[in-house]
Design a protein that fits this description.
The complex is a heterodimer of chains A (168) and B (497). The two termini of chain A are 18 Å apart. In chain A, strands 1-2-3-4 form a 4-stranded antiparallel beta sheet, with no helix packed on it. In chain A, strands 5-6-7 form a 3-stranded antiparallel beta sheet. In chain A, helix 1 (26-43) runs antiparallel to helix 3. Chain A contains 5 helices and 7 strands. With 168 residues, chain A is an alpha+beta fold. In chain B, helix 5 runs antiparallel to helix 7, helix 6 packs across helix 7 (228-262) and helix 11 runs antiparallel to helix 12 (397-411). Chain B is built from 14 helices and 20 strands. A 7-stranded antiparallel beta sheet of chain B has the order 6-5-4-10-9-8-7. A 7-stranded antiparallel beta sheet of chain B has the order 13-12-11-17-16-15-14. Chain B has 497 residues and is an alpha+beta fold. The longest helix of chain B has 35 residues, at 228-262. Chains A and B meet through strand 4 of A and strand 18, strand 19 and helix 14 of B. Strand 4 of chain A pairs antiparallel with strand 18 of chain B.
Chain lengths: 168, 497
């Protein structure tokens, strides 16, 4: 082992909190709301069936449960949207997300095995894309950044690919 | 690389591979046979049909096995291992040498009788399961393993090119005598062995229960509810007897498992490759380049502490699916072995560092309180439904669960050294994780809104051999570990595997 590795004082350690975080475009939130509305309109089938088969009381209970879940689900979208952001630094990429369960995940460029851009049909309609970064650490350590403007995702991916190739 | 020429042409395995495949496929047939056997009882001439079906099945499997053998070829071309296989769906697998994680030789009972060995090739990052060449004669297998490994390392800086047969600098690290084996077996985690046995029995019973029930339903009830009052009435005797039987069976199973797994255990060093071999009926030989070791876990228990040894798990880079299945364990490590291992893998003997951090205990206690109240409440409710009276004694569960959780929480500590992250956890079964920072694949910090109120968060350290998590640390500590690990990983210029 001959490489130099000067020790570093804890104060001078580069901190993730200090990095510049980029947020998602507002249309990503719109897309998420539409996805939830679609899911919940399908779920509405259950109360409707109850309307014809069961008591009025049970129908009302089921319908209010449905409405409650919908409201909660939309609340989560609104609450967690501002928490989502990614940061690029010289050597790594970080993504944070989550309101009730918040998480910050960082992947160093020199550990990225390969990267991928994903675009579903709704993504395409909003011109969004998600960037997937894979490491050798299994699914838990892979990083997915959804809701990027498509051209930004492509740019990011090229940047990441260049960075991770340079380290090898 | 004197043997390399042989591997440039596509070649088949030893012809005995047909037998290996046949017996492998045969195992899958057993379920079909049992079903046939049951069905045949309902027909006239059932036995005759059964025998005919059996013969047809055997011929079919024999043909499939032969085709499997015939269509399986492997060769080496341009730094890649190329394998053709498949009976109906033909498949061609190409594995570049630098993707090969490890090449293991193993030998199960049948392969031992047939005098052939299997070669398992694990490639990282691939989602598919590892490749197996089922039947090679030992000499070819070793030569091929040598070819794959020497090719693989010619890419690296440390070139080591040794002739095949002689193994000049094979340095023995440790071997286990029969006495050691006995000690390991007696100090195993018997509770786990016992539960494992119960799980296996229950699993098999469930799988075949429908056939059993067909035969038994006229004579005995298979519904546990019918026996429950009996069991409860006999109470203490049954419980005591059950515990005795359970302990006895558990210890016997521990011993058997240990002997099967670790018979003739030896570990050696071959250049920069750690070799490990063991096994009675199923012989396994692992070769792990030191660089591929991601981290080590020492684990112990009260009995082992008295006898003065620990066991060590070697966590190596593996494709995600293999991580849980293939655990490489050194069952008995005395302090001098541990030091050798530390020197080998981390380049120094580990001593305790100056900075020891402990997680906050309060969340552990709170969570255990909620969980144990739910558990006790559930049990009381269940017994009430079943027997119609309330058993207050279940409330005793609450302090017991809380006590164990408290002891566990207290046992957790983190030693933040300059190059190594050392995590200790476990009260009765203490474990010690030793991770070099630069082996991190990614780092994550998790914080729920409940933890946020207490200014705590969880830290997750992902390696190519699984995740290690530390919970309920002060926010500043978690972010320091997060930042420091990233810093160490990004400034390390060597390779992590």
């Amino acid at each position: 082992m001959t490489f130099e590795n000067p020790s570093i004082a804890p104060e001078s350690l580069p901190q993730i909190q200090d990095a510049v975080f980029h947020e998602h475009p507002i249309r990503f939130r719109k897309k998420k709301i539409i996805v939830r509305l679609i899911i919940f309109s399908i779920l509405l089938v259950a109360p409707v069936i109850l309307l014809f088969t069961a008591d009025m009381l049970i129908f009302i209970l089921a319908l209010s449960l449905w409405a409650l879940l919908l409201a909660f689900s939309l609340l989560i979208v609104y609450k967690e949207f501002p928490k989502r952001a990614y940061a690029l630094r010289e050597m790594d990429v970080t993504y944070r997300k989550g309101w009730i369960f918040h998480s910050v995940t960082s992947v160093p460029f020199n550990r990225i095995q390969h990267s991928e851009i994903d675009q579903g049909p709704l993504d395409r309609a909003f011109s969004l894309a998600s960037l997937n970064l894979y490491t050798a650490g299994g699914s838990g350590s892979d990083l997915t950044i959804p809701g990027l403007p498509h051209e930004e995702a492509v740019r990011l991916r090229e940047f990441v690919a260049r960075k991770s190739a340079a380290d090898e | 690389m004197n043997n390399q020429d042989n591997f440039n042409e596509p070649r088949r395995q030893s012809l005995l591979g047909v037998v290996v495949y046949f017996l492998k496929n045969g195992r899958a047939m057993v379920s079909i046979l049992i079903a046939l056997f049951v069905v045949s009882g309902n027909f006239e001439y059932g036995t005759l049909y059964l025998i005919l079906a059996l013969i047809a099945l055997i011929i079919l499997v024999l043909i499939i096995s032969y085709l499997q053998y015939k269509n399986f070829t492997f060769h080496v071309k341009d730094d890649e291992l190329i394998i053709h296989m498949g009976v109906i769906f033909k498949e061609k697998r190409i594995i570049p040498f630098e993707r090969i994680q490890s090449v293991h030789i193993h030998q199960n009972f049948i392969q031992q009788i047939l005098q052939v060995v299997g070669l398992k090739i694990d490639s990282a990052g691939s989602q598919k399961k590892e490749l197996e060449i089922s039947a090679l004669d030992a000499k070819t297998a070793r030569a091929f393993q040598e070819v794959l490994e020497s090719e693989k390392y010619s890419v690296d800086t440390e070139v080591q090119d040794q002739p095949t047969e002689t193994n000049p600098q094979r340095e023995e690290l440790m071997r286990l005598s029969i006495t050691d084996l006995f000690k390991v077996g007696l100090t195993e985690n018997h509770i786990r062995s016992g539960l494992l046995a119960v799980a296996v029995v229950v699993g098999y019973f469930n799988q075949y229960s429908q056939y059993f029930e067909e035969y038994l339903k006229d004579y005995v009830s298979t519904d546990i509810q019918d026996y429950l009052p009996e069991i409860i009435r006999m109470g203490t005797i049954v419980v005591l007897g059950g515990i005795l039987l359970f302990s006895f069976v558990s210890i016997v199973i521990s011993l058997i498992r240990t002997v099967l797994r670790f018979f003739e255990f030896r570990a050696w060093l071959d250049g920069r490759i750690i070799g490990i071999s063991s096994g009675l009926f199923k012989k396994n030989e692992y070769r792990i380049p030191v660089k591929k070791v991601q981290y080590l876990v020492w684990s112990s228990n009260p009995l082992r502490r008295i006898l003065g040894f620990e066991s060590v798990q070697v966590k190596q880079a593996q494709s995600a699916k293999e991580v849980r299945k293939q655990i490489i364990e050194i069952p008995a490590c005395y302090p001098n072995h541990s030091e050798t291992l530390e020197n080998l893998v981390f380049g120094k003997i580990i001593s305790q560092g100056p900075v020891i951090i402990r997680p906050v205990v309060i969340p552990y206690i709170l969570i255990s309180t909620y969980v144990s109240i739910l558990l006790a409440g559930g049990l009381i409710g269940w017994m009430y439904l079943l027997r119609g009276s309330i058993y207050y004694s279940f409330i005793l569960l609450i302090p017991v669960v809380m006590f164990f959780t408290y002891k566990y929480a207290q046992s957790i500590s983190i030693d933040l050294q300059e190059e190594l992250l050392i995590i200790k956890k476990g009260w009765v079964f203490p474990r010690r994780f030793v991770l070099p920072y630069y082996k991190a694949q990614s780092m994550a910090t998790h914080q729920s809104i409940f933890l946020k109120r207490r200014k705590l968060s969880n830290c997750r350290f992902y390696t190519a051999s699984g995740k290690v998590a530390i919970r309920f640390l002060p926010e500043e500590t978690t972010s320091f570990i997060h930042d420091y690990t990233l810093f160490k990983t990004e400034t390390y210029h060597g390779s992590w595997m």
